[in-house]
Amino acid sequence: MEPDGILALFDREMREHARPEGPGTHVERVGDVVRQTGGADDWNGVVWTAPDLSPGRAESEIAAQVEHYTARGLGEFEWKLYAHDGPACLGGLLTAAGFEPEPPETLLVAPVAGRPMPVELPEGVRLRQVTDAAGVELMVRAHELAFGTDGSRLRHRALARLSDAPDTFVAVVAMAGDEPVSSARMEMHPGTGFAGLWGGGTAAPWRGRGIYRSLIAHRARIAASLGYRYLQADATDRSAPILRRLGFTALSTTTPYVYRTAP
Protein backbone atom coordinates (compact mmCIF):
# COMPACT_ATOMS: atom_id res chain seq x y z
CA MET A 1 0.00 0.00 0.00
CA GLU A 2 1.24 3.51 -0.82
CA PRO A 3 1.93 5.96 2.06
CA ASP A 4 -1.26 7.95 1.41
CA GLY A 5 -3.31 4.78 1.65
CA ILE A 6 -1.59 3.73 4.88
CA LEU A 7 -2.18 7.18 6.36
CA ALA A 8 -5.88 6.99 5.46
CA LEU A 9 -6.03 3.52 7.06
CA PHE A 10 -4.28 4.81 10.17
CA ASP A 11 -6.65 7.77 10.47
CA ARG A 12 -9.65 5.48 10.15
CA GLU A 13 -8.58 2.57 12.35
CA MET A 14 -6.42 4.26 14.98
CA ARG A 15 -8.04 7.67 15.29
CA GLU A 16 -11.63 7.86 14.04
CA HIS A 17 -12.40 4.40 15.43
CA ALA A 18 -9.93 4.50 18.30
CA ARG A 19 -10.16 1.93 21.07
CA PRO A 20 -9.66 2.74 24.76
CA GLU A 21 -6.00 2.61 25.74
CA GLY A 22 -6.68 0.58 28.83
CA PRO A 23 -9.03 -0.23 31.69
CA GLY A 24 -10.68 2.80 33.20
CA THR A 25 -10.64 4.80 29.95
CA HIS A 26 -13.54 5.56 27.65
CA VAL A 27 -13.44 6.58 23.97
CA GLU A 28 -16.36 8.34 22.32
CA ARG A 29 -17.20 10.45 19.31
CA VAL A 30 -18.88 13.71 20.23
CA GLY A 31 -19.66 16.20 17.49
CA ASP A 32 -16.59 16.64 15.31
CA VAL A 33 -14.03 14.92 17.55
CA VAL A 34 -13.12 11.56 19.05
CA ARG A 35 -11.78 11.79 22.59
CA GLN A 36 -10.53 9.54 25.37
CA THR A 37 -11.39 10.16 28.99
CA GLY A 38 -9.90 8.39 31.99
CA GLY A 39 -8.44 9.09 35.40
CA ALA A 40 -5.70 11.50 36.40
CA ASP A 41 -2.92 9.01 35.54
CA ASP A 42 -4.43 7.98 32.20
CA TRP A 43 -3.93 9.70 28.85
CA ASN A 44 -6.79 12.11 28.30
CA GLY A 45 -7.39 13.95 25.07
CA VAL A 46 -8.64 14.36 21.53
CA VAL A 47 -7.34 11.82 19.00
CA TRP A 48 -9.32 12.69 15.86
CA THR A 49 -11.07 15.64 14.27
CA ALA A 50 -13.50 15.59 11.37
CA PRO A 51 -11.66 16.25 8.08
CA ASP A 52 -14.16 18.96 7.06
CA LEU A 53 -13.88 20.86 10.34
CA SER A 54 -14.37 24.59 9.79
CA PRO A 55 -12.72 27.34 11.91
CA GLY A 56 -16.04 28.22 13.52
CA ARG A 57 -16.84 24.62 14.44
CA ALA A 58 -13.27 24.15 15.64
CA GLU A 59 -13.64 27.00 18.12
CA SER A 60 -16.85 25.47 19.45
CA GLU A 61 -15.24 22.03 19.78
CA ILE A 62 -12.21 23.43 21.58
CA ALA A 63 -14.44 25.17 24.11
CA ALA A 64 -16.51 22.01 24.57
CA GLN A 65 -13.46 19.84 25.25
CA VAL A 66 -12.01 22.32 27.73
CA GLU A 67 -15.32 22.25 29.58
CA HIS A 68 -15.51 18.43 29.42
CA TYR A 69 -12.08 17.75 30.88
CA THR A 70 -11.91 20.58 33.42
CA ALA A 71 -15.31 19.54 34.79
CA ARG A 72 -13.71 16.20 35.71
CA GLY A 73 -10.96 17.84 37.73
CA LEU A 74 -8.16 16.58 35.49
CA GLY A 75 -4.89 18.49 35.72
CA GLU A 76 -4.26 18.36 31.98
CA PHE A 77 -5.44 16.95 28.70
CA GLU A 78 -4.06 16.87 25.19
CA TRP A 79 -5.30 17.66 21.70
CA LYS A 80 -3.26 15.44 19.39
CA LEU A 81 -2.95 17.53 16.22
CA TYR A 82 -1.59 15.97 13.02
CA ALA A 83 -0.08 18.04 10.22
CA HIS A 84 -2.74 16.88 7.77
CA ASP A 85 -5.63 17.80 10.08
CA GLY A 86 -7.81 20.76 9.27
CA PRO A 87 -8.55 23.54 9.40
CA ALA A 88 -5.11 25.02 8.74
CA CYS A 89 -5.60 27.47 11.61
CA LEU A 90 -6.37 24.77 14.20
CA GLY A 91 -3.01 25.04 15.94
CA GLY A 92 -3.46 28.79 16.30
CA LEU A 93 -6.97 28.36 17.66
CA LEU A 94 -5.73 25.88 20.25
CA THR A 95 -2.95 28.24 21.33
CA ALA A 96 -5.40 31.13 21.61
CA ALA A 97 -7.59 28.96 23.86
CA GLY A 98 -4.73 28.31 26.29
CA PHE A 99 -3.16 25.12 24.91
CA GLU A 100 0.63 24.86 24.84
CA PRO A 101 2.31 23.05 21.91
CA GLU A 102 5.00 20.53 22.80
CA PRO A 103 7.77 19.41 20.40
CA PRO A 104 6.34 17.75 17.28
CA GLU A 105 6.96 14.08 16.55
CA THR A 106 7.06 12.18 13.27
CA LEU A 107 4.42 9.55 12.55
CA LEU A 108 6.39 6.62 11.14
CA VAL A 109 5.07 3.29 9.88
CA ALA A 110 6.74 0.12 8.59
CA PRO A 111 5.28 -3.12 7.25
CA VAL A 112 5.81 -6.10 9.50
CA ALA A 113 6.02 -8.73 6.76
CA GLY A 114 9.40 -9.40 5.22
CA ARG A 115 11.39 -7.38 7.74
CA PRO A 116 14.84 -8.59 8.82
CA MET A 117 14.57 -8.91 12.59
CA PRO A 118 17.98 -9.63 14.10
CA VAL A 119 18.25 -9.08 17.84
CA GLU A 120 21.93 -8.21 18.31
CA LEU A 121 22.63 -7.11 21.85
CA PRO A 122 25.99 -5.98 23.27
CA GLU A 123 27.91 -8.54 25.27
CA GLY A 124 26.53 -8.83 28.79
CA VAL A 125 23.09 -7.41 27.92
CA ARG A 126 19.96 -9.55 27.92
CA LEU A 127 16.26 -8.90 27.40
CA ARG A 128 13.73 -9.43 30.15
CA GLN A 129 10.03 -9.58 29.33
CA VAL A 130 7.86 -7.53 31.68
CA THR A 131 5.15 -9.78 33.13
CA ASP A 132 4.72 -8.61 36.73
CA ALA A 133 5.10 -5.69 39.11
CA ALA A 134 8.82 -6.30 39.57
CA GLY A 135 9.33 -6.10 35.81
CA VAL A 136 7.30 -2.90 35.67
CA GLU A 137 9.61 -1.34 38.27
CA LEU A 138 12.63 -2.22 36.14
CA MET A 139 10.94 -0.70 33.09
CA VAL A 140 10.13 2.50 34.99
CA ARG A 141 13.72 2.73 36.25
CA ALA A 142 15.08 2.34 32.71
CA HIS A 143 12.60 4.93 31.42
CA GLU A 144 13.63 7.45 34.06
CA LEU A 145 17.32 6.90 33.31
CA ALA A 146 16.75 7.32 29.58
CA PHE A 147 14.43 10.33 29.60
CA GLY A 148 15.04 12.01 32.95
CA THR A 149 11.30 12.20 33.63
CA ASP A 150 9.10 10.79 36.36
CA GLY A 151 7.71 7.35 35.56
CA SER A 152 4.67 7.33 37.84
CA ARG A 153 2.13 7.46 35.04
CA LEU A 154 3.99 4.78 33.10
CA ARG A 155 3.87 2.56 36.19
CA HIS A 156 0.12 3.09 36.56
CA ARG A 157 -0.65 2.36 32.91
CA ALA A 158 1.65 -0.66 32.65
CA LEU A 159 0.25 -2.30 35.79
CA ALA A 160 -3.31 -1.69 34.58
CA ARG A 161 -2.63 -3.23 31.17
CA LEU A 162 -0.86 -6.26 32.64
CA SER A 163 -3.76 -6.79 35.02
CA ASP A 164 -6.72 -6.28 32.71
CA ALA A 165 -5.51 -6.55 29.10
CA PRO A 166 -2.22 -8.48 29.03
CA ASP A 167 -2.84 -9.81 25.52
CA THR A 168 -2.67 -6.28 24.11
CA PHE A 169 0.53 -5.18 25.84
CA VAL A 170 4.19 -6.16 25.49
CA ALA A 171 6.99 -4.57 27.47
CA VAL A 172 10.66 -5.48 27.59
CA VAL A 173 13.70 -4.31 29.53
CA ALA A 174 17.34 -4.58 28.49
CA MET A 175 19.38 -5.62 31.50
CA ALA A 176 23.13 -5.21 31.99
CA GLY A 177 23.69 -7.48 34.94
CA ASP A 178 21.13 -6.32 37.50
CA GLU A 179 20.82 -2.81 36.04
CA PRO A 180 18.03 -1.86 33.62
CA VAL A 181 19.59 0.18 30.82
CA SER A 182 16.82 0.38 28.22
CA SER A 183 13.14 -0.40 27.88
CA ALA A 184 10.30 -0.29 25.37
CA ARG A 185 6.71 -1.37 25.04
CA MET A 186 4.25 -2.29 22.30
CA GLU A 187 0.51 -1.75 22.42
CA MET A 188 -1.58 -3.96 20.16
CA HIS A 189 -4.94 -2.87 18.82
CA PRO A 190 -7.09 -5.93 18.03
CA GLY A 191 -9.28 -5.40 15.00
CA THR A 192 -6.74 -3.12 13.36
CA GLY A 193 -3.57 -3.79 11.40
CA PHE A 194 -1.39 -1.65 13.67
CA ALA A 195 0.89 -2.37 16.61
CA GLY A 196 2.21 0.77 18.29
CA LEU A 197 5.80 1.10 19.45
CA TRP A 198 6.20 3.31 22.51
CA GLY A 199 8.71 4.39 25.10
CA GLY A 200 11.92 3.14 23.48
CA GLY A 201 14.77 4.76 25.36
CA THR A 202 18.29 3.88 26.45
CA ALA A 203 20.40 5.27 29.29
CA ALA A 204 23.09 7.61 27.95
CA PRO A 205 26.15 5.39 28.66
CA TRP A 206 24.59 2.56 26.63
CA ARG A 207 23.48 4.45 23.54
CA GLY A 208 24.96 3.69 20.15
CA ARG A 209 25.40 -0.04 20.83
CA GLY A 210 22.36 -1.38 19.00
CA ILE A 211 20.06 -1.86 21.98
CA TYR A 212 17.33 0.40 20.60
CA ARG A 213 17.38 -1.45 17.26
CA SER A 214 17.23 -4.80 19.04
CA LEU A 215 14.18 -3.73 21.03
CA ILE A 216 12.44 -2.80 17.77
CA ALA A 217 13.33 -6.15 16.23
CA HIS A 218 12.13 -8.02 19.32
CA ARG A 219 8.75 -6.30 19.21
CA ALA A 220 8.50 -6.71 15.43
CA ARG A 221 8.86 -10.48 15.82
CA ILE A 222 6.00 -10.54 18.32
CA ALA A 223 3.82 -8.34 16.08
CA ALA A 224 4.48 -10.66 13.15
CA SER A 225 3.56 -13.73 15.20
CA LEU A 226 0.25 -12.09 16.12
CA GLY A 227 -0.63 -11.19 12.54
CA TYR A 228 -0.25 -7.41 12.64
CA ARG A 229 0.53 -5.69 9.33
CA TYR A 230 2.19 -2.47 10.44
CA LEU A 231 4.43 -1.11 13.15
CA GLN A 232 3.67 2.50 14.09
CA ALA A 233 5.67 4.98 16.13
CA ASP A 234 5.51 8.66 17.04
CA ALA A 235 9.21 9.43 16.90
CA THR A 236 11.28 12.22 18.40
CA ASP A 237 14.14 13.83 16.50
CA ARG A 238 16.47 11.42 18.30
CA SER A 239 14.73 8.20 17.30
CA ALA A 240 13.30 9.15 13.89
CA PRO A 241 16.63 8.81 12.01
CA ILE A 242 17.15 5.32 13.42
CA LEU A 243 13.65 4.24 12.44
CA ARG A 244 14.07 5.64 8.92
CA ARG A 245 17.26 3.59 8.50
CA LEU A 246 15.28 0.53 9.60
CA GLY A 247 12.75 1.01 6.81
CA PHE A 248 10.07 3.13 8.48
CA THR A 249 8.29 5.71 6.30
CA ALA A 250 7.17 9.13 7.53
CA LEU A 251 3.43 9.66 6.98
CA SER A 252 2.83 12.90 8.88
CA THR A 253 3.88 14.82 11.98
CA THR A 254 1.94 15.14 15.21
CA THR A 255 2.10 17.92 17.78
CA PRO A 256 0.69 17.50 21.29
CA TYR A 257 -1.23 20.60 22.33
CA VAL A 258 -1.59 20.40 26.10
CA TYR A 259 -4.16 22.25 28.20
CA ARG A 260 -3.19 22.46 31.86
CA THR A 261 -5.83 23.29 34.44
CA ALA A 262 -3.41 23.26 37.37
CA PRO A 263 0.09 24.74 37.81
UniProtKB/TrEMBL annotation:
PROSITE patterns: GNAT
Species for this entry: Streptomyces atroolivaceus
Keyword annotations of the record: Acyltransferase, Transferase
Gene3D superfamilies named in the record: 3.40.630.30
SUPFAM superfamilies cross-referenced by the UniProt entry: Acyl-CoA N-acyltransferases (Nat)
Protein name per the record: GNAT family N-acetyltransferase
N-acetyltransferase domain boundaries: 125-263
Uppermost EC category: transferase
Record CDD domains: NAT_SF (cd04301)
Enzyme nomenclature, EC number: 2.3.-.-
UniProt GO MF annotations: acyltransferase activity
Pfam families: Acetyltransf_1
InterPro entries: Acyl_CoA_acyltransferase, GNAT_dom
